[in-house]
Amino acid sequence: MKHIQTFQVLPDIPEPLSFLETLAGNIWWCWQYDAVDLFHRIEPRLWDWSGRNPIRFLTYVPQNRLEELATDRSFLSHQQRVRESYERLPCLHMKDNIYPFETRDVIAYFSMEFGIHESIPLFAGGLGILAGDHLKTASDLEMPLVGVGLLYRQGYFRQFLDQDGWQQEDYPETDIYQLPVEKVTDMHGDDIEVSVTGPAGEIRATIWRTHVGCVPLLLLDTNLPENPPEIREITSKLYIGDQGMRISQEMVLGIGGMRALEALNLSPAVCHMNEGHSAFSSLERLACIMKTHDVDLKTAMEIVPRTTVFTTHTPVAAGNEEFPADMIRPFLIPLEEALGVSATEILSWGQLPDSSPDAPLSMFVLGARMAQYRNGVSQLHGRVARRMWTHIWPRRSEEETPISHVTNGVHIPSFLSHENSQLFDRYIGPDWQRHPSDPANVHRIDDIYDEELWRAHVMSRARLIRTCRRLMVSQYKRRNAPKEVLKNAELVLDQDILTIAFARRFATYKRANLLLQDPDRFEALLSSTTSPVQFIFAGKAHPRDHEGKELIKRLIHFARKADIRNRIIFLEDYDIHIARHLVHGADVWLNTPRRPFEACGTSGMKAAINGVLNVSILDGWWCEGYAENRGWRIGNGEEYGDPAYQDAVESRALYNILEDEVLPCFYDRKNGDIPMRWVRMMKESMKMGMRTFCSHRMVSEYNERFYQPAAKRLHELLADDASEARGLATQRDRIRTLWQDIRVEYPERQTEGAFRVGQTFRISTTVNLGELRPDDVEVELYYGIVKGVDKLSDGKSQPMEMLEAHGNGQYLYACDITCAVSGRYGFTARVTPGGDDWIRFTPGFITWA
Ligand SMILES: *Cc1c(COP(=O)(O)O)cnc(C)c1O
Questions:
Q1: Where in the chain do CATH 3.40.50.2000 domains reside?
Q2: Residues in the chain with pLDDT < 70?
Q3: Using a 6 Å cutoff on CB, does residue 598 contact ligand 1?
């Protein structure tokens, strides 16, 4: 059948309920329990059946039910309350609904995935959920942010297991008409299209828009009838396997995304690239700045990176994306004209320093090269990233590698349980949602009566167990399991015993099987009747990760034993819905990565804010979160050379913690069956989550450290016909030509012998700057504790002052240092360009004594 014409039949919503359609059109509803409850009460089972997708849901609610509600006073007053809360969103009162904010300093946030709610399948895992949380939080904080991503027809795969426990994948088609998205059109009502030139011709894409509260999210889509089939496929699946397709996808995201913003008249003040996938956006932004401000490429290069943020999430070098030069080159040729340089030159921006012209292009290198603000996602990951990439900034120490960190956080209103949310309303006041990390709110947690918190948690656990049973039944039904198996599935787990959840991607480094190291000991733990414990596992393996699938299969086989069958289950198709239930209702959140491969991890934070206690390797965020009074650590943060030995040591440590600490603490009941010490730990955990691991803290940190200074800098650079940016470009050229003439003599101290703590002494050196002048450069003393030969650890720098000009480019520099801590110190001196980090950290612009 060809040329099928389509039409859509919409439900006939009675006028008094018309707000329900408005509400369904803005994803804001998903982090407001009052709004979720409003949909839920219409028809609870249908709500679940619809995947909690309000648009889909409303098309199935029977007409007579709608008619009934249209005159139901209690329902209408509930609806009115939600409506009033919705109408308090500040953006609704502004004219332009594409870009609702007053300031024109737009922050464009690019991400390959956005995980906002389970009914909008545009994400695979943690990276996407982080991006979704970023948008929700920006809306809560009324920040002028715009998300840019892709609209996938098949999203990420759905997981189910066969009889043998082997993972199967399914890519169901998403019905766009059941998503809260609409096409962006121009004044005449025509679709706005953008196009990117690929090797096989134009890649055309339309733009869809969805509203995340006040924040618009633009989604590009190449599935247009006028595109050839292979081009329509580009935005079909998230992380498409074929490399050529993947490049096209990232071109559409980066270049197409920038063009979409331009088409909507939104010229971003700051661009944030969430992981390297969107690094091509900076190429288009260069072209855009050149055209709009009539400047050359060199000048644009002084502007774009100074206003770009790049967040890396990958602590393994192999995990960072690379494309072969000959594959990427045809995509760069169309950019030659706009940028006025050769494709070879553009390619070199994404290659390691000193590599050959056919070296692969690394999306990390390109992203890092185009952004002055670079960060990892936890303190430890920042350190790992500096070690991994130190070679990009030659002759700098590892500690000085210019990559910092912003620890991730989670959107508390999205992940707090219903039960806890009610407690927050009562003890903190309903406004807590807007400032969850406010210190005044955090202290309020201590006021909650222990009994009340515990009862709330017991209720969440009961809800989790109920959900698990329902899911197990439907899993078995899909496998056509016999009747008695189905019957048994209705009785799995126990709602009154210690419940431990392990839910995450089944990648080998996450070691889902660590508990299976000693199967007998694990079995003994699971069959205990005095201190009973149960485990819930969930998670997808990457479709091509054979080992990951093996892990799932082993677990399924282990869980079949008759004596433990009801104490250990695997939930298929881990997604936000399952995650939400688990982080609400489990007692312990287990995490066993091989340090340091977990960049951050956010599921443990979701658990923490609900008072679910973490038992985790000291990796990612837990290095910052762990304290004795709010959870447990497995090991002390060691790293091992031998993985088998590591598994043996750490699995023993894990069994010991569970047997000797977690279980006794959980079953130590007094005062009417309340585990007092456990509840105290729950409160500490919740306070930690609110204070430190909340997305409001994270987004504020991005805003204060990166977005605000970058936006301010943009205006300075562009003022006066971009005179400062032009000047900086000229200065950079000058420095490049004259740099090799710089010589620094070994610095000398002017006092002999050893010093006592507190003493101050002077160090001086002579520097030959050639034709450069003292105000072109920064001369610094660099000192630290001597470690080995010619190596300083914990190096610090201190500016030296120019004391005398000796003529012929020779200058005397000196500074005083005060001995703060005893030890054996070494020092040397160096010259870098003066100015901000973007010039100072230019690879090559550093000369040591
Ligand atoms: C929070 C979340 C993640 C990320 O958490 P990790 O700790 O990195 O595993 C992944 N998937 C889902 C569905 C989540 O909700």
A1: 105-408+703-721, 494-693
A2: 1-3, 93-103
A3: no
Ligand 1 centroid, distance to 125 Cα (angstroms): 6
Rounded Cα gap, residues 374 and 377, in angstroms: 10
For residues 687 and 620, give the distance between their C-alpha atoms in angstroms, rounded to a whole number: 19
Does residue 579 line the site of ligand 1, with CB under 6 A?
A: yes
d(CA 154, CA 156): 6
* Ligand 1 contact, 382 CB (< 6 A): no
Q: Is residue 96 a contact partner of residue 260, using CB atoms and an 8 Å limit?
A: no
Identify residue 389 by its one-letter amino acid code: W
Q: Please give, one letter per residue, the 3-state secondary structure of 13-51.
A: CCHHHCHHHHHHCEHHHHHCHHHHHHHHHHCHHHHHHCC
Ligand 1 pocket, 126 CB below 6 A? yes
Residues 632 and 613 sit within 8 Å (Cβ to Cβ) = yes
C-alpha 310 – ligand 1 centre gap (Å): 21
- State which ligand 1 atom lies nearest to the alpha carbon of 578: 13
Q: Domain 105-408+703-721 maps to which CATH number in 3.50.30.10, 3.40.50.2000, 3.40.50.300, 1.10.357.10?
A: 3.40.50.2000
- Check residue 1 and give its pLDDT: 55
d(CA 149, CA 147): 7
pLDDT computed for residue 11 by the predictor: 78
> What is the 8-class DSSP label of residue 705?
I
CATH fold group of domain 494-693: Rossmann fold (3.40.50)
Question: Where, residue-wise, is CATH 2.60.40 in the chain?
Answer: 742-848
How does pLDDT run across 161-219, given as a tens digit for each residue? Answer: 999 999 999 999 999 999 999 999 988 999 999 999 999 899 999 999 999 999 999 99
Residue 484: C-alpha distances to residues 337, 481, 490, 565, 656 (Å): 70, 8, 10, 13, 36
> Taking the domain 742-848, which CATH number applies?
2.60.40
Calculate ∠ Cα 355-359-362, nearest 5°: 100
**Which atom number of ligand 1 is nearest to the Cα of residue 575?**
13
pTM over 0.85: yes
